[in-house]
Amino acid sequence: MTRAARDADHDGSLVSSLPPQPLSPLDGRYRAAVTGLADYLSEAGLNRARVEVEVEWLIALTDRSLFGTAPLSADDTARLRALYEEFGQSEIDWLAAKEAVTRHDVKAIEYLVRDRLSTLGLDGIAELTHFACTSEDINSASYALTVQRAVQRVWLPKLREVIGTLKTLAVQHRDAAMLSRTHGQPATPSTMGKELGVFAWRLERVAAQIDAGEYLAKFSGATGTWSAHLSAAPEVDWPELSRAFIEGLGLDFNVLTTQIESHDWQVELYDRVRHAGGILHNLATDIWTYISIGYFTQIPVAGATGSSTMPHKINPIRFENAEANLEIAGGLLATLSQTLVTSRMQRDLTDSTTQRNIGVAFGHSLLALDNLQRGLGEISLAEDVLLADLDGNWEVLAEAIQTVIRAEIAAGRSQISDPYALLKDLTRGHRVGASDLAAFVTGLDIGDAAKERLLALTPATYDGLASQLVDELG
């Protein structure tokens, strides 16, 4: 190949295009793990919710017999609701074609509803479609609905699956004594169950905060003042009607806004989801570390390859993938929180593009949860390794010994002047074994009962209330 041909090849002019491909791995490689979110946080999911809001607003207005209308029959109401309940590919295609002309997504939704009203023989209420609404009335309610449903029906249940698995493992390993490491150094023993329980406890607390969060929407017109509404029907209590409508959708009502709902509930939610992601990231790195030091072994998956060149390897890829996806999700969630909290004066459009990435952020978070759930099911505790590690670090009993000496001094049964310094001289920078500590304790100026307690102690039994603390998980 000539240099000119190579250059042409490099700039793409001679390279044939691939068939249409997903740009994001969430829509390609990882589609199966995140598909539940697409029902809500995709463009089609958003448009379905927009149709739902428009239809329900029509029903609300006719239920009040406004502008000479009468409440719709049960049959007509059901046929109207079918517009969003049976929303599918034909509506997706119709909207795509219409938006190519309107260049406005919400206006295309209005035209779709009007078109379907005509098909249903309900032209008499067509002028009430999108009545007195600004696009953000529809959007704020639609985003609140889609995010609420995605969180409550897909993301939060997956988080609770991970929490449930951690609780199960905590109970299973509640008595599995292990050497702790603080600052990476041997420290007072715990149990693996209690350590996993810490993550379950932390995540449960944040999950409860997320579960109790608000999903706010506004429905007050172009600048949040109900001006157009009052011009058309000054006798109607529009704030009360709007509140009833929004709450009827299962959302919380924001009465004081600009053109947009201020997005503060979204900021709160994304910060909490990011917080949960930070805890999960901590879990992933800790489990990875426990695997690396042999505390957990990985259960081989038939047919799986750990390394392309080293046949013996089983890589902890579930936890590594979770770690990476949590970092991506955290970055996106932080951007959402930072961007959505502001809007220039009564409205700018920065939130329009930003909110279209909500699904991407939750997608990476959900993918991480899926990896963690799978990974936690593919590890086995190597209790022999835990016990060997404990038996090689008898110096961790120095804390217990010096604390018992201090108690004996306080009780008047010892004349030792500085128990901490005494144990520091014995153990700091030194490896001591069972016999060394036994000889040391035997020679201490303390009561016989205290000596017996200390002589009976081993690193594997020096785990305090670790096992009982697992009961706090409920």
Short description:
Residues 343-462 form the Adenylosuccinate lyase PurB C-terminal domain. The protein has 474 residues and is mainly alpha-helical.
What does this structure look like?
- This protein is mainly alpha-helical and 474 residues long.
- It folds into 3 domains: 33-133, Fumarase/aspartase (N-terminal domain) (Fumarase C, Chain B, domain 1); 136-301 and 313-386, Fumarase C, Chain A, domain 2 (Up-down Bundle), CATH 1.20.200; 394-458, Fumarase/aspartase (C-terminal domain) (Ribonucleotide Reductase Protein R1, domain 1, Orthogonal Bundle), CATH 1.10.40.
- The chain has helices spanning 3-10, 31-41, 43-63, 74-85, 89-102, 105-119, 135-172, 192-211, 227-232, 238-248, 264-292, 317-340, 350-355, 358-376, 383-391, 398-410, 419-427, 434-442, 448-456, 466-469; strands at residues 177-182, 185-191, 216-217, 252-253, 296-298, 379-381.
- It has a two-stranded antiparallel ribbon.
- A hairpin with a 2-residue loop joins β1 (177-182) and β2.
- α2 runs parallel beside α3 (43-63), α2 runs antiparallel to α7 (135-172) and α7 (135-172) packs antiparallel against α8 (192-211).
- The mean pLDDT is 93.
Name the beta content range. under 5%
Helix-strand sequence:
HHHHHHHEEHEHHEHEHHHEHHHHHH
In DSSP terms (H or I, runs of 4 or more residues), the helix count works out at 20
Report the radius of gyration as a whole number of Å.
Answer: 31 Å
Number of domains: 3
Termini separation comes to: 70 Å
Name the helicity range.
55-70%
What's the arrangement of strands in the largest beta sheet?
1-2
Give me the CATH fold name of the largest domain.
Fumarase C, Chain A, domain 2
What would you call the quaternary organization? single chain
**CATH architecture identity of the largest domain:** Up-down Bundle
CATH superfamily of the largest domain: Fumarase/aspartase (Central domain)
- The total count of strands amounts to 6
Described by strand count, sense and barrel closure, the largest sheet is: 2 strands, antiparallel
Low-confidence stretches: none
The gross shape turns out to be elongated
Please state the average pLDDT score: 93
Structural category: mainly alpha
Q: CATH first level of the largest domain: which class?
A: Mainly Alpha
